[in-house]
Amino acid sequence: MIVAIPKNLSEWSIAVRMRDGRCLRCETTVALVAHHVKPKSEYPELRLDIGNGETLCSNCHAEHHKSIKHSRPKAPRELSKQNALRKENRTLKQQLKEANLLMREESRLRSRLQAAKAEIKELLAALEEYEIAYEKLVVLDMSHLADAEPSAIRLVRKDRHKPGYMAEYMRKRRANVNNPA
Fold it and tell me: How many independent structural domains does the chain possess?
């Protein structure tokens, strides 16, 4: 008899039962079922292999499964190599994403730092220009003190760095210009 290769479990079951025609344990021909000798969960490649099947009656089949349920030790549940690789791949992708975010943040902070340094340079240059202009203004405004004692000129120069000195000086100067003595 020529048997076609089964395409699904239903065809596999029919082919195994037709091949054996009876229960291989108790010889009965009633309520026959096809049984995988090597479990299809552990050997998926033999799932449709007729050589991996035997015909049992429903009673013998149930008895067989009761006996192996208690006698076969359960294998420890470990991640398959493929699942472990997938998990590692996800972890690496997450780490790469975090590294890219950190690199972008570092780049952004570096550009802000460079901009701040440039702004500080500009402010220092402007401050230097103001100090030079201030020195010139003080020298020009002190020209009327040419007759004064050197200690008075030193006092004016020394006090110019105190807070509010310039405002007080300009107020006195305006008062002298508006009310010449």
Answer: 2
